[in-house]
Amino acid sequence: MSTSAFTAMLSAILAVIHIAGIFYALRALMIARTPQSAIGWALALLTIPYIAIPLFWIFGQSRFSGYVSMGTGECPALDAVAHRALDACAPHLSAFPHQHADCERIARNLRGLEAIGGNSTRLLVDGNETFEAIFQDIAAAKKFVVVQFYIIHNDGLGQRLRAALLEAAARRVDCHVLYDAVGSKGLDENWFGPLRAAGVHVHDFVTNRERGRHFQMNFRNHRKLVVVDGRVGFLGGLNVGDEYLGLGPLGAWRDTHLRVEGAVVPALLISFYEDWNYATGEVLDLPFEMVPHGKQRVLPFASGPAQTWHVASAVYLEVIHDSKERLWIASPYFIPDPATRSALAHAALRGVDVRILLPGKPDHLLPWLSSFTLYPQMREAGVRIWRMKEGFMHQKVLLADDDLSIVGSVNLDYRSFMINFELAAVVQDVSFAADVEAMLNRDFSNSREEDLSSFEKAGFFFRLKCRLAALMSPEQ
């Protein structure tokens, strides 16, 4: 090829790339979540399209496509089984008291879920207590077991889970396992092959499998759920891996899960029905037996990027706005969106005891660095921040006043609120809140309160690293 011909071909390719950059810049302006994101993407796509276009394919999508939620009419069979679960719960609807009515109302209007009475809850602290309870209930299963985790490793704990499911399958219990393909990267036939051979239904949740969505890779199914016979459910922060038992490189692992038994459990199945339908194209209709057990009110909420409005963000905001005396939040990541940041500050400014409990060491560097940039704002508002001294803290827990708690998979960051599929439960009960209070007080006693002027006093290069990390916060 002559030099002139090569030059002409190269010029044509560059022209096409720049035209594509203009096209995607316009698309970014139309779909970006925030003005800042729109401006950032547009400038990058117009000036460095060779780099920005591939990044936009992966990170630029704000809405997850191809997923069907209940009640949309897109899948009548899915709507039918979801409403069957809701109908079973209906006789036990039990509205939250007036102070907390807003979070229930918004969850109902966005996802069709309401607070349900007739439950007993148990706070599970750390991995050993959590998985012993899960394995005990799986061993007692008679009809079905549903297992969903973001991460499943083929290690000691993963093999114990597999053994429990194989034993259940041998008793002719119908078992379904769903895991996220990114979170459980590396899980292969060595782990799930024996399960499938025993009749266990195992599938991965892959966000870019469908035609035209091969670059839809920034989304994660972060939910953790176990349901046994429709009578008992587990949800919270723990995944399946030895590190969650404190056996990994981060050492001691501080986490929290929730066991709930009673009338709300069929409602917990709805998000699994939706996820399974997306992953497999099948509509499950499991033969649950719903048995009321206790008097506690529980409001489950599933959130994800397939919805226009972000349910987790909405519920958290309402709880923060409605808190009167106390608001304690434990999260491994602290990168709240502007609305949540303002709500926390406003709560502190009106006299609420606002405390944020964070890990003292990182598992992911970027979100850990980003959190320091919020110290000046939080200090000026009166928000207090603690960091745990030993090990790693991964729990996602909120305590509001003396009677409202949230336990689930939701982190206090952009990704949980806007990009991930999440699952959590609001428990309105004084005795359960007292258990959460006691647990968090133990955590505070094992933590140090941060000097929130430390960021401004830190060296230039540390502050620069934190600021640069914060620029990536919507994608972390």
Q: Evaluate the radius of gyration.
A: 23 Å
- What is the averaged pLDDT score? 91
Number of strands: 20
> Globular, elongated, flat, extended or rod-shaped: what is the shape?
globular
For the record, the CATH architecture of the largest domain stands as 2-Layer Sandwich
**Can you summarize the main beta sheet?**
16 strands, mixed
Report the span from N to C terminus.
Answer: 45 Å
Care to describe what's here?
44% of the residues lie in helices and 21% in strands. With 476 residues, it is α/β, with parallel strands linked by helices. The protein has three domains: 3-59; 76-104 and 113-296, Endonuclease, Chain A (2-Layer Sandwich); 311-475, Endonuclease, Chain A (2-Layer Sandwich), CATH 3.30.870.10. The strands form three sheets. It has a 16-stranded mixed β-sheet that branches. Helix 7 links the parallel strand 2 and strand 3 (174-180). Helix 7 packs parallel to helix 8. It is globular, with a radius of gyration of 23 Å. The two termini are 45 Å apart. The mean pLDDT is 91.
Q: Short description, anyone?
A:
The protein has 476 residues and is an alpha/beta fold.
Question: Which descriptors apply to this entry?
Answer:
20 strands; 476 residues; globular; 16-stranded mixed β-sheet; 44% helix; Endonuclease, Chain A; 3 domains; 21% strand; two-stranded parallel ribbon; alpha/beta; 17 helices
Itemize the secondary structure elements and their pairings:
Blueprint lengths: L2 H29 L3 H13 L1 H11 L16 H14 L11 H11 L4 E10 H14 L4 E6 L6 H15 L3 E7 L8 H9 L3 E5 L14 E2 L3 E4 L3 E5 L16 E2 L1 E7 L2 H16 L15 E8 L7 H12 L3 E5 L3 E2 L2 H12 L3 E6 L6 H8 L2 H7 L2 E5 L3 E2 L3 E4 L3 E5 L3 E2 H6 E9 L1 H16 L1 E3 L4 H4 L2 H12 L5
